[in-house]
Amino acid sequence: MALTPEPASGSPILAARGGPTAEPPGSLNASLNSSWASSTGPSSLEDQVATGTLGVVLLAMGTVGVVGNVYILVVLGRFPRASASLRVYVVSLALADLLYLLSVPFVVATYVSREWHFGDAGCRVLLSLDLLTMHASSFTLALLSGERCAAVLRPLDAARRPGRYRKALALGAWLLALLLALPMVLAVRLVPRGGKGVCLPAWGPRTHRAYLTLLFGTSMVGPGLAIGLLHARLARAYWRAQRASFPRARRLPAPRVLRLVLGIVLLFWACFLPFWTWQLLAQYRGAPPLPARGARLVNYLTTCLTYGNSCLNPFLYTLLTRHYRDFRRR
């Protein structure tokens, strides 16, 4: 979820992560709050159909994603030695996806009823949970890329690393993600507006804009640069190994494992970069750059993209662990 400014008042309001952002006053489905906080008329048939379709799609994505991520956790729990160097990070990613997907029913219920039913605690938990899982995923992806880089450039050192070392890194990623989400937990509150409850942060629009800009840097820019540099080093190492054609190249992890890791990273960027672009445009422009109907369409698409990431990831995790096990057997 994210907080976006309500154009009518200039104060931030609650919106689903990748979901509806603030739209001009009088438009429908502006956000999880502004759609009922502003004075709007009854929903049109088109809006009802769009909202119902979005709800069905999100529930379907949530069901598939929850089953897939639970399957990954069960498999790795039953076979703890499978892909040992990747196991901790894959478990961390699957947990982050699972927690994020568990928010789908709450988002759909708010979309359909156009009212917040989950109280002040719901504002704090659901909003901060999205920020927590998003950062935990991006930090874990950086650690996963670093693990693959170490396996190529320093295979003996990587093999000697104990499991508790990787667990400590994964736990540190979650603690850092929690620290970045903590201001949202403390600032968000449920306040009455227009006869209904609205989730609002205690700080003003400028502070909120600065906070979202910081989160963009910590969730996308920073980890993205680190991952890009790591994969550039990997590409350089493989290029040199292929040119030299010396026996040590046979001991390098299979390139397809690295391609799958890169695929997971690119999927994360493809699903969340549109969300952040849309959110920051709304923050710095003060209003969506599109007409109301176009803005709603972009909101729906970015919503599906963010949840689609957690839905598709289990399939990539399955391929990643399976291919790595095959490599270890050979």
TrEMBL record:
Membrane topology: Multi-pass membrane protein
GO molecular function, one term: urotensin II receptor activity
Main location: membrane
Residues covered by region (Disordered): 1-27
GO cellular component annotations of the record: plasma membrane
Subcellular compartments: Cell membrane
Record Gene3D superfamilies: Rhodopsin 7-helix transmembrane proteins
Superkingdom of origin: Eukaryota
Ranges where the G-protein coupled receptors family 1 profile domain occurs: 68-317
UniProt xrefs under InterPro entries: GPCR_Rhodpsn, GPCR_Rhodpsn_7TM, Urot_II_rcpt
Keywords: Cell membrane, Disulfide bond, G-protein coupled receptor, Glycoprotein, Membrane, Receptor, Transducer, Transmembrane, Transmembrane helix
TM stretches of this protein: 54-76, 88-112, 132-156, 168-191, 211-235, 256-277, 297-320
One of the protein's GO biological processes: regulation of blood pressure
Function: High affinity receptor for urotensin-2 and urotensin-2B. The activity of this receptor is mediated by a G-protein that activate a phosphatidylinositol-calcium second messenger system.
PANTHER family with a match to the protein in the record: G-PROTEIN COUPLED RECEPTOR, UROTENSIN-2 RECEPTOR
Name listed for the protein in its UniProt record: Urotensin-2 receptor
Gene field: UTS2R
